[in-house]
Amino acid sequence: MRQMISVRKTILIAAIMTLYDLPSLTPAKIISSQLSAELTQRLAALGLHADREIEVIRRGCLGGPLQLKCGSTEFMLRLDAARRIVVALLPEANSLLAEHGVLA
Question: Ranges for the Ferrous iron transporter FeoA-like domain (predicted)?
Answer without folding.
Answer: 17-89
